[in-house]
Task: inverse folding
């Protein structure tokens, strides 16, 4: 087998080893070393503390579980459910004292094994990436074929009769290595490694009793294994298997603090919402499998290119594409399945950094990229539309949040919308580019916020304050002086996400917006126009809310002096990952010229748009079709042979993008770039005016009760409430009540009815028995008695009577025998 | 009209009936016995009548008349025995009213 594939398999399996090691050697004792007895005190109306849309999440008002010194005590949670606010009190009592200092040290040391494994994986991934990207594409193969792949037969039904494809099914598993997979390998292993490093300090709390610390690293390993499986899989079945595994890992990690109601709810929500998307994905996979006979992507693309499409109809091909994208809607938190990601912030911050910034949510985008060749024009419009809607909704919600992690969560959803939007309008490389850059700066932002929250936590702990939320920006401010390194790294990442030149985010976002602009230019469809406008508007909103976050957290005067006093910078183990990620958020890794992304090596040679193989009639119909005869390939640096393999509409789009940028001026002065700069700059200026400058009044608005539009945005467009009303309450509960009614009235009715009927029948029979049967018997007896009474009278005891009988007898006999 | 067998038979029948009537209806046990005697005598008349009016040689043998003498003797014996029974009945029941001797009634 090819070395790269072999090394990829090793990279896949090492985290699994880490998982096993952490579990087996982690000496996990009883599931909870703390006994928690909840009892509810209802009726406490606390008004609006925290986000009312956090239907079942808890305010972070307790720290008892973190500190064994206060192990015996009362923990209070505020839970706002639809209808009433409840004040839950948990009595926590420590159950066993057997976890000693030595045990803790051992657990900590054991966790470094996982970190080491991830470091090895990172090095190997860099090697694979280098080996793959520098290798030339195979001659003559269409450009959606991976550079190298290998499959193993798993289940062979070749001799079984088959109806649709004329031969039996053969199910395989396989690995591939191409540029896209190689880049993703590096991204996943890098972020995972940095998160492992960060967690060694962040998660090091006394509450990590009973093996909880090692459990964390075990699940990180399981997650990394699952994600890498998705990355190097070459067939849809394997992707689906690892997809579900990623879902499970996400459930385990979000619900890491599983005693709390918040993580319990959030982890279930994440998994269930994901599963909803997976239904669609599975339907899509099955359409392709039953019609084309294979799960392997290359074979599927080849067949479609050869004219063989599901059920022979383009509508079905569109459906298959959209259904497969449904999986991405679930995993990448697109509208309408975006509800799980903000709640997933209940998990520890490193988890948010790993899963919900960089990797798992990128799996959806990665899947869409993998199936890109089979998306028809309608499917692409759908994808673009969903991406744009998601981007807008999430950005609008992020504008008014005051929990740091929520801002970042909604920002993630919004940026994922951007990536999906890019893939939908055909700007494939831009979308992938944004995925990579986003992974870097978003992970940096999450880890940075984790850094801040860590310090806020310590400070509040110092003050024995269990009421104030350490993630609430309204208690922050002025942290720039106290945590300079964290501030600088977060600033770099924020500049990147806002799309400011000299940073990676500018390069990727600008390409996406240019792609959307080009798409709109050649496609008069209203979706194209909407997507274009939304793209730029959201860019402005992104800059605004990100800088709002920076200003509220780091600038100005501290909102609460007492918290501010105890905040210090974090140790090197926590700031080192930040530095690495911040450097990766600069322009350097992605292209030589910071102002011209298209000329950089990422877009021009690392990631190429795969050719779309759907039939001509199903491809998007663009104006300027004649421009396809141009050869823009040379100016993009792509080999001419590859460009010729693209579908006509793809070359048209590339040409159009090129047109937009080639005004004779430098790239940065082209129209799309200027507009995006304008939007970003406008957002930053507005944020500065409202929050950054001395005497800004924006903070007071944040503190006030949300009203009207603010309330609508703050409560996440009431989407959670809507889903809560429809699904649990509207469907499950209603169904429950119906079934309960059915059970009580119909089924029990039948049972009781049968019993009543039995009783009635038995009464009838008893009556029969009493009157008829006994009657007969009595009648017999009566007859006998009557007869006896009758005949008794013959026996008078008197001789004369008997003489009479004799005479009578003689007379009778005389006449009888005459 | 000459007196023939039917006339004797008629008389014996009447006598028999009267005797039977006496047996059946009399309450006094001795009267009952009288009735029996009547019946026996009726039978006697029948014997004699048949013996006298039978044809030919049979009328010479006088079988009936002889039987009738037997019957008289037997009637006398039987009457003696019967009266002995009646005496015992009187000893036992203190009455000779046959209606009152109904112990075999249930």
Result:
């Amino acid at each position: 087998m090819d070395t790269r594939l072999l090394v990829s398999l090793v990279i896949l399996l090492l985290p699994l080893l880490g998982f096993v090691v952490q579990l087996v050697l982690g000496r996990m004792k009883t599931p909870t070393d703390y006994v928690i007895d909840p009892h509810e005190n209802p009726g406490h109306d606390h008004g609006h503390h925290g986000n009312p849309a956090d239907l079942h999440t808890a305010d972070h008002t307790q720290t008892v579980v973190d500190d064994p010194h206060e192990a015996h005590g009362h923990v209070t949670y505020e839970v706002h459910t639809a209808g009433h606010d409840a004040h839950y009190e948990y009595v926590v009592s420590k159950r066993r004292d057997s976890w000693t200092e030595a045990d803790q040290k051992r657990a900590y040391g054991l966790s470094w094994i996982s970190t080491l494994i991830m470091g090895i994986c990172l090095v190997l991934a860099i090697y694979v990436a280098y080996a793959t990207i520098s290798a030339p594409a195979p001659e003559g193969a269409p450009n959606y074929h991976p550079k190298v792949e290998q499959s193993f037969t798993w289940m062979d039904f070749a001799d079984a009769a088959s109806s649709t494809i004329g031969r039996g099914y053969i199910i395989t598993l396989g690995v591939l290595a191409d540029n896209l997979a190689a880049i993703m390998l590096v991204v996943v292993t890098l972020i995972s490694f940095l998160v492992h490093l960060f967690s060694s300090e962040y998660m090091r709390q006394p509450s990590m009793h009973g093996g909880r610390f090692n459990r964390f690293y075990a699940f990180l390993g399981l997650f990394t294994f699952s994600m890498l499986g998705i990355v190097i899989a070459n067939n849809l079945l394997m992707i689906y298997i690892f997809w579900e595994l990623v879902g499970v890992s996400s459930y385990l990690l979000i619900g890491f603090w599983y005693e709390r109601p918040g993580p319990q709810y959030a982890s279930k929500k994440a998994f269930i919402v994901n599963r909803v998307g997976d239904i669609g994905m599975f339907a899509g996979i099955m359409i392709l499998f039953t019609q084309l006979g294979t799960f392997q992507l290359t074979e599927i693309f080849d067949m479609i290119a050869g004219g063989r499409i599901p059920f022979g109809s383009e509508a079905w091909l569109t459906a298959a594409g959209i259904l497969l994208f449904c999986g991405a809607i679930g995993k990448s938190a697109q509208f309408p399945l975006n509800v799980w990601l903000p709640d997933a912030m209940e998990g520890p911050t490193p988890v948010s950094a790993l899963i919900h910034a960089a990797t798992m949510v990128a799996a959806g985008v990665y899947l869409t990229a993998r199936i890109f060749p089979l998306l028809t024009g309608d499917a692409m419009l759908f994808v673009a539309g969903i991406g744009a809607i998601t981007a807008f909704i999430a950005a609008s919600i992020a504008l008014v949040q005051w929990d740091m992690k929520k801002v970042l969560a909604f920002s993630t959803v919004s940026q994922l919308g951007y990536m999906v939007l890019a893939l939908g309008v055909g700007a494939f490389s831009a979308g992938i580019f944004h995925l990579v850059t986003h992974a870097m700066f978003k992970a940096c932002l999450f880890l940075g916020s984790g850094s801040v929250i860590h310090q806020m936590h310590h400070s509040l702990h110092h003050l024995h304050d269990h009421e104030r939320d350490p993630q609430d920006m309204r208690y922050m401010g002025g942290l720039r002086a106290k945590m300079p390194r964290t501030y600088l790294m977060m600033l770099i990442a924020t500049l990147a996400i806002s799309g400011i030149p000299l940073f990676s985010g500018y390069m990727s976002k600008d390409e996406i917006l240019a792609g959307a602009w080009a798409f709109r230019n050649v496609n008069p469809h209203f979706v194209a126009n909407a997507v274009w406008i939304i793209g730029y508007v959201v860019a402005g909103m992104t800059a605004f809310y990100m800088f709002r976050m920076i200003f509220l957290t780091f600038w100005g005067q501290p909102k609460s002096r007492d918290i501010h006093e105890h905040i210090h910078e974090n140790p090197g183990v926590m700031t080192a990952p930040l530095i690495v990620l911040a450097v990766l958020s600069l322009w350097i890794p992605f292209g030589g010229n910071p102002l011209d992304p298209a000329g950089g090596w990422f877009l021009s040679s690392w990631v190429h748009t795969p050719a779309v193989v759907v039939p001509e009639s199903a491809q998007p119909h663009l104006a300027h079709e004649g421009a396809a005869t141009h050869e823009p390939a040379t100016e993009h640096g792509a080999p001419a042979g590859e460009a010729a393999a693209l579908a006509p509409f793809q070359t048209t789009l590339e040409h159009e993008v090129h047109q937009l940028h080639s005004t004779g001026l430098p790239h940065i002065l082209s129209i799309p770039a200027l507009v995006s700069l304008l939007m970003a700059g406008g957002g930053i200026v507005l944020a500065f005016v409202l929050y950054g400058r001395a005497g800004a009044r924006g903070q007071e608005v944040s503190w006030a009760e949300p009203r009207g539009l603010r309330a609508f945005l703050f409560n996440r467009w009431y989407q959670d409430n809507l889903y809560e009303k429809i699904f649990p309450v509207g469907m499950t509960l209603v169904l429950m009540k119906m079934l309960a009614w059915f059970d009580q009235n119909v089924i029990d009715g039948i049972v009781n009815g049968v019993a009543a009927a039995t009783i009635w029948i038995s009464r009838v029979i008893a009556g029969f028995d009493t009157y008829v049967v006994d009657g007969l018997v009595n009648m017999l007896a009566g007859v006998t008695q009557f007869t006896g009474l009758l005949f008794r009278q013959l026996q008078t005891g008197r001789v004369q009577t008997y003489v009479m009988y004799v005479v009578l007898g003689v007379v009778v006999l005389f006449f009888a025998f005459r | 009209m000459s007196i023939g067998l039917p006339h004797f038979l008629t008389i014996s029948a009447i006598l028999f009936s009267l005797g039977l009537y006496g047996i059946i209806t009399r309450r006094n046990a001795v009267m009952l016995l009288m009735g029996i005697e009547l019946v026996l005598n009726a039978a006697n008349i029948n014997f004699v009548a048949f013996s006298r009016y039978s044809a030919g040689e049979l009328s010479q043998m006088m079988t009936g008349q002889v039987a009738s003498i037997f019957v008289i003797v037997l009637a006398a014996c039987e009457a003696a025995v019967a009266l002995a029974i009646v005496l015992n009945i009187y000893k036992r029941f203190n009455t000779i009213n046959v209606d009152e001797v109904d112990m075999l009634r249930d």
Summary: The helical segments of chain B are 5-25, 29-53, 57-61, 63-93.
